[in-house]
């Protein structure tokens, strides 16, 4: 392994572990403390953990490559996500935070079950999380293995080391250690991104005629919407991310942690600023990479996920080490947050453990990490494919959550049953598409000019509305 990379990794791991250990002083005496900080978290820490959890290694690897291949249209896709997330956080998210303080929720599946008064629904949601999120976690750990390979480490050793960091930082103090290291990693991600951007910009200005490259870039359509971004493809990419803030458990659970109204509102502002900066950085790197390709400094036909590794190999060891560590940080922050949130659902809604059973929480986290890292070592192709569909499989939770929050306290058992059916049908459509056509084709395919994500939303919403109508009919009949 490159000595510079090894030194950077040791510093990263050591500082993170110290930060995670120090966070134990916040006190973890119950499951509520362990999973959602007992609702005692301040704005900066809450914003940091939300940002680092939301923005995974996809940004500096996937989004950079997507922009390199498809142009500035990728910025529109990612900007739609950011605007919709901030909108949800400012409206529905705030209502969820207030309800969480009353319901004392520690898991998103518990929240949905309580909104509908249905234990069966809570278990269904928890099972969906387990099915949909574990492949996504595995993909994050596999990404760690690949990035470690750039540093000269064996893939398997990278997976083991990454998994060890994940489980250690979770076990030390639960959400407190995860949030503290998330803030630390979020800063690393931003610094690494800025260094990456500066290097690509300086390399471009040294090796090519910038004005001519920009002209060529524009003439080839990379500064507008390329043929890749058809209406159907744009909808396929954006619909799952529009509802990301209320479908993915690792971010939904972050809505429960704020200590007061001021902390909540300030954290939304801080996240908005961070998200916009990080998005602009990733998109700019992707465009600069395409400029480098036009200038003949890197290949013009690189696979999407190969762009960042190729650029990292051309950097000096010191810069490459910093950027690589920042990408590792993005993957680790997302992976440990997912494991913690899925663990909370298993703890509360499947095993139905008591608040004081922290040993059970530790065990669940360890088992989930071992399963994810074991699957990552096996490098099963369908795991990577299935992780592509994670956001699509979780889409039925969008109307279920929105309806539950909107009609809180007015939903009967019929609505709860309809919600279960809506989730099973919506996720079933996604699984059927995966088995029939494969993940990539299912994600972008359209039927009657609408992508599968839109049909999942339509079908699950229709089933839910039918349940509400039956509720209203029964209520009027009883009068």
Automatic annotation (TrEMBL):
Subcellular location(s) per record: Cell membrane
UniProt entry keywords in alphabetical sequence: Cell membrane, Ion transport, Membrane, Sodium, Sodium transport, Symport, Transmembrane, Transmembrane helix, Transport
CDD domains reported in the protein's UniProt record: SLC5sbd
Any one GO molecular function term: symporter activity
GO BP of this protein: sodium ion transport
Record's keyword annotation contains Transport: yes
GO cellular component: plasma membrane
UniProt xrefs under InterPro entries: Na/Glc_symporter_sf, Na/solute_symporter, Sodium:Solute_Symporter
Residues passing through the membrane, by range: 6-23, 44-67, 79-100, 121-143, 155-176, 183-202, 222-247, 268-298, 318-339, 360-382, 388-406, 418-440, 452-470
UniProt xrefs under Pfam families: SSF
Membrane topology, record value: Multi-pass membrane protein
Family, per entry: Belongs to the sodium:solute symporter (SSF) (TC 2.A.21) family.
Name of the protein: Sodium:solute symporter family protein
Species assigned in the record: Thermosphaera aggregans
